[in-house]
Here is the input.
Amino acid sequence: MTRTAARGGAASTPMIRQYLDIKSRHPDSLLFFRVGDFYELFFEDAEEGSRLLGLTLTARNNGGKRDVPLAGVPVKAVNEYVSRLLELGCRVAICEQLEDPAEAQGLVQRDVVEIITPGTVLEDKLLVAQRNNYVVAIAGEAPFGLAIVDLSTGEFELRELAGATDLRDELGRLEPAEVLISEEMDPPAGPWHLTPRPGWRFDASLGEERLREWFGVTSSIGFGLHVDRDTRLLAASGALLGYLEEVRPAGLDHLRPPRVDRAGRVMFLDDMTRRNLELVEPLRPGEGASLLTLLDRTRTPMGARLLRRRLLRPLVDADEITARLDAVQELVERPDDREHIRGALRPIRDLERLAARVSTGRVGPRELLGLGLSLDALPGLAAALGPLEAARLAELRSGFDALEDVAARVAEAIDPETPRALKDGGVIRAGFSAELDELRSLRTNAVDVIAGMQIRERERTGIDTLKIGFNKVFGYYLEVTKSKLDRVPEEWTRRQTLTNAERYLTPELKEWEGRVLGAEDEVAGLEARLFQSVRDAVAAEVGRVQAAAARIAEIDVLACLAEVAVAEDYVRPDLTDDIVFDVEEGRHPVVETSVARDMFIPNDMRLDQDCRTMIITGPNMAGKSTVLRQAGLIALMAHIGSFVPARRARIGVCDRVFTRVGASDNLAAGLSTFMVEMTETATILHGATERSLVLLDEIGRGTSTYDGLSIAWAVTERLHELGARTVFATHYHELVGLAESLERGAAFNVAVRETGRDIAFLYRLEPGGSDRSYGVHVARLAGLPADVVGRAARILQVLESGPWGAGGRGAALAEGGIGQLSLFDAADSPGEEGAADVAAARELLDRLARLDVDRLTPLEALNTLAEWKAFGDA
Ligand code: ADP
Ligand code: MG
Here is the structure.
């Protein structure tokens, strides 16, 4: 900025000096400087604007100084440009003219009225209705304090996180648009916009003071905050509130008091679990559906946002979950009432965001009308709740504030046909203000007089084509076609010549024009004042609107879950405190909707005191991952209070649900992903308890067979010791032996049926291990040539009975029926064929051992075989 300052100085024009002064207070933002119908960018901002937005760069005269680079954006199009800048991670400071330029004495007063940052936008067009838009401040260094605000809805939450991993997971869950950190902190990596702030802004006692001032309370104890213990939460609050004050100097009355979210009430979902279970988005964007897409049948944006939040924060208290389930059950069992409720929800618009817009003075007439019409639906909603008895529904109904007074206020004042913009007029309803009605009739009368003039003058002059018209430059005029010019009276003054006509004025016409325009100005001024007073009246009730919106969101979510339960044939899970996960005929909620109707095979799964560890084996594509994820999804759905896809389910409350997927099942494999996989496995071993549900899919697969096998073995043993309910899906059928050796372990397999040389997938979970990997069968299905498959089958036979198989290497060889495979013999007992042959055989044997059949593509298999053949022939 020093460069900018240096270019300014005494000889600059007054406006450029004003610009430099304002800019010096907003060095980190692109300054949109209002000049008439444009926002102008100067100096470096102009250059940046032209680079980022493709604006034309011009120059502006600067008095005695060198010309100033300039780029402009029309006021009308400002939203579009701002949204592009936000996407690029820029901040935009909007500097307005604070007085009417026509009335200003000298230089127009200007100042910044708001700073728009990715985390603090309020413009509807820049927000997604179904998702919160968070700005988050992080204080401390393990444990961390998080202050979380969605300015577009007014929500404010505080949360403490134990360490860096939890912090990363939490940020992954929130997906904030903007993150505030102290300049001294290592920035957490992620797609958000990072806003470093000076360290002193993260001061706890300053934070406490700010909280008290902002919400007008004498102590922060009312929020459940403890001055000495909650220093990080206070620090984060202070930093965030300070920032909000800065970007919205006009104030933010709609920000709700903070809700402190102590650990223990909700289940902490880590990043990997959220992603692997595809809770809110599919693993590969654009492919497949998430659980949220399936469940979201909400009717309002508030409901949609709440459902998303709930899905990412399942409950851990059986009573609380049961209360939700009771409500859902009643709505399931009373379809008529459910229909009434959902019908009443339909016309309700985004009350949370409208409330925020009312309170920040950004709401237009049509939106205010929309808010009023939404409120009109509330008495109907309250009535629809009437017959319901579930405790949670009764709570939501009792003291339900249907805001009839606010709705009436809007309805009596705002014209049902109001235009979008105030300046277009016709915003206030007739009959609302006697004064306005009077002014409007004065205007109408004056217009009528002018219209009367047209008839009168036609008769008087005999010009039958005489017209009275209006344009913005000349106002009202009399228009006479060229052919009738000889009849024009002398006292008319000519004003404008057209090709076929002349236009005239008369003093009488001017006088009435003055009356029309005067009345119009007064009408516009009065309409603006009346509109503002209605808006302020509604703004004064914004807390009530927000409270109603919160209830509506919850009613919407409960009715939505009931709707899905009926439509998808779900059952109420039985929640208990026992350590059990007992599901009869469970289904994968998303996969079942993607296979043909009734083609999904349900499965039972039972984990309890006697069986804590379940090892599922089976060939590739048998359905291991599906049955594993289905367990996780059923568990989580139950914990948010949803019915589940099963015939019966008894689920002991879990403190955590962990899901890990081995690296090679996880997009592109590589050494580093194996490292990632192990790190994640380590977190499970540290975090899991007897109350956890742990789902491991092909862990250990990212490395060579023996490594992977050993790691998988050891991890499973440890989880078994911990007593966590564990399901391990693996294609290592060697692990079957482990399951059998564990005291409370059991082996299962996803059944396949061998039909001659082929296999058919049955997708049915059965007790016992699968003893073969069926990789060769899969190779056949994949189209590997028959002779290659046949050969592979024979090699496999030897391997399974050789040094790698369970049966001991002697067996197959003793039978001696392997034909060409005698090279194993050769390698084992060098005979008269010579040392070179033996070395070659050993080498081949070695390569064979290193080969991971399950990871080969058919083409790789072919190439490998060709290579070996060449090697053997040589
Ligand atoms: P694995 O993990 O054993 O390799 P997956 O679980 O990925 O197998 O399943 C492979 C495919 O089989 C799935 O994409 C799905 O189309 C189908 N599938 C899996 N389970 C079932 C089932 N229970 N009923 C019907 N189809 C299933
Ligand atoms: Mg799998």
